[in-house]
Queue: 2 jobs
Job 1
Amino acid sequence: MRRMEATDSKDATTTTAPRRRGRWWRILRRSLIAVLVVLLVVAGLGFAAYRSVPADQLQAITTGKLRVDPAALGTHRADQLRVRLGKDGKVEVRAPSDGKQRLVWTNQPGRAFVTAATGTVDWEERRGYFWPSVDLGRTWPDQRIEKVRARGDHVVLSGELTAAEGGSVPFEATFTARRAGGARLDVSVEDVDVVGFVSGRAAGAGVHGFGEQFDDFDLSGRLVPLVDREQGVGRGEQPLTVLADVTKHGAGGTPAMTYAALPRFVTDDLRGVRLAPGSAASTAFAVADTRSGRRVGLDVWARSLRLELTAAGTPQRLVTAQSGPVSYPRLAEWTQRGLIVGVQGGTERVRDVVGRLRAAGVRLAGVWIQDWSGQRTTDFGDRLWWTWQRDTGHYPGWRRLVRDLAKHGIRTTTYVNPFLVDARDRPGRNLWREARDRGFLVRRDDGEPYRLDQGGFDASLVDLTNREARHWYAGVIARYVLADGVVGFMADFGEGLPMDARLHAGAARRMHNAWPRLWAQTVREACTRAGQPECVTWFRSGSPGMAGLTPMLWTGDQLVDYGAEDGLASALLGTFSAGVSGWPLTHSDLGGYTSVDAVVEDYVRSPELLARWGEVAAFGTMMRSHEGNRPDANRQVYDAGELASTARNSKIFAALGPYRAEVLAEARTRGIPAVRHVWLNYPRSDAAERDDQFMLGDAVLVAPVLEEGAASVRVTFPPGDGWVNLFTNEVYRGGETATVPAPLGQPAAFVDVGYPRWIALLDRFRRAGLLRD
């Protein structure tokens, strides 16, 4: 698949999360190691080589002053919309939202809310990593509103954007009441390359969202490039990051890298802004600017914007109002019965692993077999054959295997991605050649198929901008991937379209961020054509408007450690930001994915990490394990020494079934994330300041262990009458902070006594042998 087999094209990693505070001992140790590594790098490779590592080079338009001509002052009404322009340069927009008339948007008083610039963006790319270099030319940071027209259901503001050195460009901003609540804003500026929109916020109000960001939940104080790309290996974890940067041309990554960047955010003062999905600018490259504590800027490389402005009385209702009416796919019920085990290696090995797990009492819902199409040996290890046809030598008796598993209630899922390889010597159809001959592949400028280096072999993307190509590829997936009883798959990649590619329709730079949605549309069509409307698919890349096409997102390729930079803690951060960005269901690879021998330190999965990750997954929405990119070097959920913890964690997941069904129903109908930051339930509480604990729904709180060797955690409880430990029956007061024992097998998890069925939930844990009386 990333992912892949024993070793995949992406030695990628992901995420960032909680343990930033209280980790000084680890930081000191890592820093000393990093210093040593840097010295070695400088000595061995030369300082010039190190400086050649690519990095984001970002600029944002400076927000200038706002002037309002006297004739434009006052309150302007259109239908249920109210736009007020004050003498102090404050603009307020009020509209029905979340059931009542609300202030859905305001600027920072006296500051421009529309800006513009000319400029260019240059891109450096290698194996799915993209680094933008933004060069702004002339900028128009100041704004003057000269006229206001209120007609029908909209209010139009017009005037000019100016610069201190002189010169101006005209702008127009049209506010319209939005049927789903809030207001729509259409902004147009003539003859520019970038249009900026700037939203006010209360001093110090947190900013959340921008897609799946593996960084602090509050993204204040940053420049955030909104581009889908590989996340990187280490992302600040040393010495791994510096080694990946130098030896793999910038593959170390940064906290700003993500597979799923989305142009939308919400703030602590309960207002939200997003570029309207489906609008021309919604998938354009953009830079978010949260460096000012009083505003949030969004510079979009387009000449016109369509934005949606919302507000609500609570964070949950804000997420619902911002997403509007979305038909979220249903996650198949079978996924909720237990573990979906990642296993590969052929028919007999799958049978052996399943037998071991069942004998150990593991609640098993499914298997995930990524190497169903066979493996190939490269200089980088064993990789998958991207031919998307079953390898009969690797998996003899496949149909019988799938049938036998189904008899025990175990469903089979596999793997596919939007790439094809020219497999000349493989049996079966050569799909790459078929696609080439029909003009279905992404091309270079010379018209030849764009062959992308995957580390040991080349592959080409199916041109998803071509409706006929999508239909053809959906048929391939329906016929071969969703065959013989297979009920779902990992839909990998989606973020790697080269910026200089030639497409059937559209410019690659504009379509790059749209590619995941096109991939999801192809997959959804394949499920329909296979007669499986509830086939279980999970994606790591994301685009605006994609949430209604797939039931599940996953957080990508975490490192096999606990770290907030790229490990278990970072997976939580990605889940939090994805949740408030319109992705209600996410999960991570149980145990992490990326394992690297960095010489100074060998990053391998410890038995304790595997168990702790399993505890987090047990309180998630889908419990799926991964063998990782180095299966033989890492502990597995089916190893003899890990079977007991695997069984216990699967029983926790199963015991939560009825409660989780309520949470999933709410996620599907309202778009509320199932696994969520405490802020969504208890804003302005002390618990909402913590990034290292989470809630499943409204009633279950979890404070995971995020440090090797720890047997207790500090828990800040949300307000309430009390919180009962699901494993010890001990009661804690709402609002208090306490040190809670959390030995292996007993995660710090609690149910709110205000939940009407909390006693029934405790009883399920008791009957499952999980609750100590």
Job 2
Amino acid sequence: MKIRSRNGGRSVRCLAAAGFLAMRLAAQDPASIWKALSQPAFDSEKSAPVHNLTLVRDRIQITLAEGVIQFAQPAGGVVFGAAFAGRGRVQLEPASQAEKQQLRLFLKRDSLDLEFTEAVFCFADNTFEELGGQVHWAPSADTRLGRLYHDRQQEREDAGAELLPRLFQSILSADRQRTALFSADLKTKEKDWVHFRFDALEPEEITVGRWTNWDGAIRYDAWLSFPAGGRSAGDVFRDPLAKEGFQVRGYSISAAVTRNAELHAATKVTLDHRAAGDRTLLFGLDSNLRVESVKDAQSGALLFFQSREKKERNQSYGDSIAVVLPEPARSGQSRTLEFQYSGKRAVRKVGQGNFFCESYGWYPARPNSFAARADFEMTFRCPRSYTLVATGSKVNETTDGDMAVTSWKSDIPLAVAGFAFGDYKVYKETTDKIDVEIYANRNPDQFMQAVGDSIDSHLPTGPLAGAPAVGTLSPAALVKTMGIEISNTLRLFEKFFGPYPYKRLAVTNIPYSYGQGWPSLIYLSALSFLDTTQRQALGVTQHVVLTDFFRAHEVSHQWWGHRVGWKSYHDQWISEGFAEFSGNLYVRYRKNEKEWLARLRQDKQELLARDQHNHVYESVGPVWMGQRLASSESPGAYSVVVYKKGGYILHMLRMMLFDPRGQDPEARFIAMMQDFCRTFQNKPASTEDFKAVAEKYMTPTMDLDGNHRLDWFFRQYVYDTGVPHYGFRYTVQEAGGGKWKVAGTITQSGVPAGWKDILRLYIRASNRTAPLGWIATTGTDTPFEFLLPMKPEKLSVNESEDLLAEIKQ
């Protein structure tokens, strides 16, 4: 590569400087740097009064109006922190209407303008040079600002924030521009401490929010998150790994689980460096698992730093591990790291022969693994009296003394891997070349056992006896039924979405009320393994939700999340919303149309319900906001909006593509879904990727903008909020010649001007209701008029919940 310069000597000097920087960084002592960052000492010589100093990071503008600032002593020659006390002001204009809507949720206004009295800054950019060059030093022995920095850092760590390892990563990097970091914690009058960050390694570099207590734990409220420089999220997530310094290519895991629920593991991680200059690699690992060593195949033992161990179940000090390389990485370089670790709480004993194995965090991983894939080879040891099942295909099974040893290998690269073990009754059957395996505990877990004992103890005895006992509540009782139902689910989804992506599907029970769909391994709540009588005895009324819908939702994740991943949190509705749709679809075919419509209407009711702060769930934010919807303002909004509305969005597209007069009314929708799966086979997809596929199959009726695009639909239902209200009025008059004239108006309200929809019109004649056609609405009032060859008994819209709307007719 040639380097052009107006001054050839300057190029040589730049290269020499770069080489010197690399040597200086290689000579740094990482342990001393980590200690300096985690136990910061402030420099009494670097204290100064300030007056109207302004820091600008993209749209963040921080003004230190009046007060005192003091800087930390350097770590590895880099000044990384400062604290301020006095008067200040922070201002920010959100980058989009969607971000303004989120800010309104937290601040009740469209732009951010807050005053603050204290500030703590962490940085690995030019902040020190920028501010230091504008002040006159006034040495001070006052230790208050140093204590302020330390206390705030401790509060962040107690909340699970991982700023410290990220700062460490940047300071050790040979490319500080690529890894630049700036953060400011500002103590405001309105909202206490608010966190502002510019992180060059994030696709959305700008984030604003605060840590606060909600849902029983300290969590982060994400007020704002957007790319710097005026770029769109679609642009920066087009390649979701663009800023990743490395990519994991494969895992080789050797793990042992004991009767006492201890996990011991040696995990080899093979990775490829995508960028030059990194000396620190950050991984996620449950801090209940304590790392004993990290080795490099070439360099031997490596230095590492891990988050503090959790003390309580709801307490988190972060789940990160920072591994230090002996020298800066080279782009294209490959390496294999071996982690040795063990711990007690990642696997929990929850009853006789019952264990709960965490699906996340039991091996070192990178965030958003669903945007990437890796090969997995895993060997597990567990007591011979138990059975272990894992993702992938079982390639070997032996015994070693009183331990059973099984080996598993992924047939194709996977986003994640998991396992389960216990005293299982196993049922197997083969359907359409897919091996279905059910692993059900022979005994109930502790919670189910306690509930069963409590119910049985209150049953009448003697002459009044006769009420049915709930039995042992053992998941094993329904093992065969579960196998048959899972097989039926697979058949339906293969018809709609295309081939199942793996060779086998294993299903097991877990002792909680949720489920998890991992590639070829599904964890289902033990409640779904109970029969109707047992569920009724437990007071459960929503039987379909816990059985047909729940099973189908989790099975469909084999397609939504695994066969097709997601590029960013903005696109996660493609997984959860599509799985919600799939669960409802199975209810339609397994039960009947009445039950299916009841599920859809229940979803709509939940979207229009209000949370504890009186927000209508649907209005909290668009589906596209993903997990940012969960906050102290509306803790349940993510699960309601992303799941329920995400599923409704796909349902609406299905109904628009449904052709009641076609040989197969579902043909166009099925073609779209199978095309989407083929196109993004074992790859991540974005919302715009799905939109592009949907536009290939849209009908002329759907082309409300006249450009063969679905901009109007995605703008309204994916990228924005709103549920339209429609009034439907009509008259029928005899028109002569055996024809009848229908005239009426559809009125629209509850949504912004310019909202567009198509409403399917239904006719009832001869005691049968059938689709008649479509009416496009593009304004407040839409008149319509047409002739019919008979007098209808009734005309209606939205009979099949074709549209997420409130209808008055």
